[in-house]
Amino acid sequence: MHTEVREKLRVALLMALSAGFIDGFTFFHYDGRFAGAQTGNVIQAGIYLAQGDWVKFWDFAIPIFFFIAGVMFKVFYSTYLAKRRKFDALYMLSIQLVGMTVFSVMYAAFLKLPNSIFVGIISFFMAIQFDTFNRAHGMGYTSVFTTGNIKIFSVNLAKWIMTREKQYLHAVRILGAIIPTFFVGAYLATVLGNFFGAWTLLGACFMYFLVFLIYRTEAI
């Protein structure tokens, strides 16, 4: 069966790896903020609001608004591309690759921003990824955070134990490969961040470049 490039397992693994890498980097080096897993930001914003700490509240709320803007941008641009019968995933990937690379180099070299704005801008690009890369081998998954993946993995594992049907085992294998890559990405970002500082973020850009190469070398 023909598999669209964006749904290939190698693409899903690289996207999950980059998401774990980015969130591991922003959480460890930017005071517990998440660029992708917005649930963490929502919870912490609520905690600081309850404590009356408005500064901390906005520190965690700002990335959420950037994430919303990223999703909306993706919807608007995808609609524009669809009217012109253009393949949106490659365009979105190109925006993410170029945008993240330029921003990462500028920030590491000379650009100074508050932590919340820095993480917010990354959240914008993560939102594009979340709403573009969301299927692997015809099966839905999340490429930015992994709670949903763990849930789907568990459901399919239980169904496979009960029925022994191959479709459930297939889902278990796919998600069983994707889920650990978030862990690996977070581990790598934390270790490398101690040596390369803000330049570490280019590691995620390299992963996006690998996905771009897959798009350019394999038939859609």
Protein traits:
220 residues, mainly alpha, Growth Hormone, Chain: A, 8 helices, 76% helix, 2% strand
Summarize the helices and strands and which ones pair or pack:
Elements: H1 9-29, H2 38-50, H3 54-83, H4 88-109, H5 115-132, E1 135-136, E2 139-140, H6 147-163, H7 166-196, H8 202-217
Antiparallel strand pairs: 1-2
Helix pairs in contact: 1-5, 1-7, 1-8, 2-3, 3-5, 4-5, 4-8, 6-7
What does it look like?
This protein is an all-alpha fold. It has a single domain (5-217), classed as Growth Hormone, Chain: A (Up-down Bundle), CATH 1.20.1250. Helices cover 76% and strands 2% of the residues. It has 8 helices and 2 strands, in the order αααααββααα. The longest helix is centred in the C-terminal third of the chain and has 31 residues, at 166-196. The protein is globular, with a radius of gyration of 18 Å.
What is the 3D shape?
globular
Unreliably modeled segments? none
Report the CATH architecture.
Up-down Bundle
Main β-sheet description: 2 strands, antiparallel
User: Strand portion, in percent?
Assistant: under 5%
* Structural category: mainly alpha
| Highest-level CATH class | Mainly Alpha
Number of DSSP E strands: 2
Query: How many helical stretches?
Result: 8
Radius of gyration: 18 Å
User: Could you spell the SSE succession in H and E letters?
Assistant: HHHHHEEHHH
What value does the average pLDDT take? 92
**Widest sheet: strand ordering:** 1-2
End-to-end separation: 13 Å
CATH topology title: Growth Hormone, Chain: A
Helix content: over 70%
When the domains are counted, the total is 1
